[in-house]
């Protein structure tokens, strides 16, 4: 099944027709266009129920997240031994973080050929996913600053403005300056660790990189990957002077360290607790404001059509 979001930023009717024609020349293909939010979830769930071999999503990260959640049962009752269709991605959004992290070509037509080659060769791999009690995430979730940015960007898209790297950067800067005077904080709990008090923003990553500034990779948790647990990146300050050196390290891909920063690249569980609801985003979609939210990791949760990766050897 090919699920296409016709409203995604980088899709066009001609491009969609070309990649659908190319795929249908190689495989029996059911093409479905999404018409509303949540439709990719519904279509992927149908594909799982009807025993499709593979679901290919041509759209942005939001559509891919919906499809992944449709392919899998909710985390609270997921059966890891139950067969599910594999997930493949042809980039169609503005960021395409998940596809880029998997090693999929950013050009949709080249990505289509890449997916065909991988399917013909039987290439697939299992990846771990992060989740709350009722929802899976593919690459990142967060409370505080990044969720504020995502919320602001969604408002701008609804107002008819295109999501571009420059607009994301400007929205991030202005949101950061606005939030620097905010008193909203939350605490962070990781089993076996001291409680982190007064966090201002926190990222929970399922892989790295999970964010980009145009073509530049930003790695908040360099050692986190689909083969590890979750990465946690929590800052207890939004002060500009304290965060400028940290931002410089992130932009230069140096090891991100700071006195006001807690970082761990491999945990199985993390909980955020706030006195008042704070914005939360998941895979680049704003999901609401929460006081308490828990994130866990599930290894080998999803089969993806993607190039193989070399996992660094560990020494003991």
TrEMBL record:
Q: Which SMART domains match?
A: DAGKc
- Sorted alphabetically, which InterPro entries does this protein's record hold? ATP-NAD_kinase_N, Diacylglycerol_kinase_cat_dom, Lipid_Phosphate_FormReg, NAD/diacylglycerol_kinase_sf
Q: Where is the DAGKc domain?
A: 1-136
PROSITE patterns with a match to the protein in the record: DAGK (PS50146)
Q: Which cofactor does it need?
A: Mg(2+)
**Xref: Gene3D superfamilies:** 2.60.200.40, Probable inorganic polyphosphate/atp-NAD kinase, domain 1 (3.40.50.10330)
Spell out the family assignment given in the record's similarity comment.
Belongs to the diacylglycerol/lipid kinase family.
> What is the name listed in the Swiss-Prot or TrEMBL entry for this protein?
DAGKc domain-containing protein
Organism of origin is Gordonia terrae NBRC 100016
